[in-house]
Amino acid sequence: MTFRFCSSIVAIGAAILPAIAMAQSTIDTVVPIIYDRGRNVSVTERARPETNPVGLPAGGFTIFPALDIQPGYSDNVYQTQDNRLGDFFVSAAPRVLARSNWSRNSLQVEGSGNLVRYATEKPRDQNGWQVAARGRYDAGSSLTFNLGVDTARLFESQFSGAAITDVRSPTPYQRSQARFLTDARFARFRVVASGTYADYDFRSVDTLAGASLSQDNRDRRIASGAVQLEYGVTPDTGIFGQVTYTDTEYDEVLAPGVDNRDSKEYRLLGGVTLDIAALVRGTFGMGYIDRQFNSALYRDVKGFSFDGRIEYFLSELTTITLTGSREIQDASASGSGFFTTMGAVRADHELLRNLLLNASASLSEDKFFGFDGKARVTRLSGGATYLTNRLISAKLDLSYARRKSDFATGNGPTLSEFRMLAGISVHP
């Protein structure tokens, strides 16, 4: 049985608020979703030599510079229920990627920016950036070692349950992390061991009332490790078992005299991976998850969990992707943990060889423990990419988000925002 490695990055950990807040799943499985056996190619993966960037040669590396410029509009800049303000903005995303051309092993280094400037509402401006390095060492045809490090200045969406909701400025934080993954294959078996260590440093924000709010009680370190064993039943179908352990440590107490949310989490999943030519590929696992808090102040949370991603190849020109998960996140000061359940569907269609369309919808629900309350977030989006040539492509992105909760927050229990961006990408 032949596999091809498909990488993913552990996403940001669940953030904790000093007030009740809605939350969405923000932690990916430590072991990447691995199912690609080279039998299918999605619409977005398909090679297009006539429009794909060729890069700039530099010894044993190829340099890929790029710049995305997208003017846009938001009909609710501060993402509030009342007193909605609309504004135009410009998003600029420069990036440079250096990728090795070696026959064995690989190394790539990347730097990027995410700059947002509003026409009127200057408190919403953003200066985001990231630098990263990733390498792969091929110890043999059946054994590889992968290592990655990165640091980034990021901003939370206020539709994320992790974010503080009544802020005037966007919520900035610094994430620095290191990751490793070992992939070993023998006969019909595959063993993947993975781990990550991440440090989160949240910066102060300005509230809608004009006060400066410290977020030091959200600073934390997350160490995760996982092992997955997979057995190939047939060349296109396998079964797997996975165990994951996560340790979370906060730098400060939640509030004076109130313990922080340090915890240990265990998750067991079992499932199937498949890659059936011209039909479907994906993975789905379900099992049990248990988060135990170090302090007796917080109630331990445990129960059913699942994680999956399925791609259905309706035709060579259309790919339908389904994703879903059920995980535990930390709660706010007024409760312990909660379950967040998410489901999403996305369609990618190649209308023309150089015109790609996409549409997606997602729904997430958070069920809290320790107090009554649910929060639901609905997202709809669509867009188009026109590949003019190897140098320039044009993009259109439309999105709508709505959050509704059973309890009030600083800017209301119901929020919504429509955003539109249209621009170009330059990539020599």
Task: Explain what this protein looks like in three dimensions.
There is one protein chain. The protein is mainly β and 428 residues long. It has a single domain, classed as Porin (Beta Barrel). Helices cover 0% and strands 61% of the residues. A hairpin with a 2-residue loop joins strand 5 (126-140) and strand 6 (143-156). The model is unreliable at 1-29 (pLDDT under 50).
Number of separate helices = 0
* Average pLDDT reading: 86
Euclidean distance between termini CA atoms: 38 Å
CATH class: Mainly Beta
Rough outline:
globular
Q: Which sheet architecture does the biggest sheet show?
A: 18 strands, antiparallel, barrel
Low-confidence parts: 1-29
Quickly list its features.
428 residues, 18-stranded antiparallel β-barrel, two-stranded antiparallel ribbon
Task: Walk me through the topology.
Elements: E1 56-58, E2 61-74, E3 87-100, E4 106-118, E5 126-140, E6 143-156, E7 171-186, E8 189-202, E9 205-206, E10 212-213, E11 220-234, E12 237-250, E13 263-276, E14 280-293, E15 301-315, E16 318-329, E17 338-352, E18 355-368, E19 374-387, E20 392-405, E21 414-426
Antiparallel strand pairs: 1-2, 2-3, 2-21, 3-4, 4-5, 5-6, 6-7, 7-8, 8-11, 9-10, 11-12, 12-13, 13-14, 14-15, 15-16, 16-17, 17-18, 18-19, 19-20, 20-21
Provide a concise account of the structure shown.
The protein is 0% helix and 61% strand.
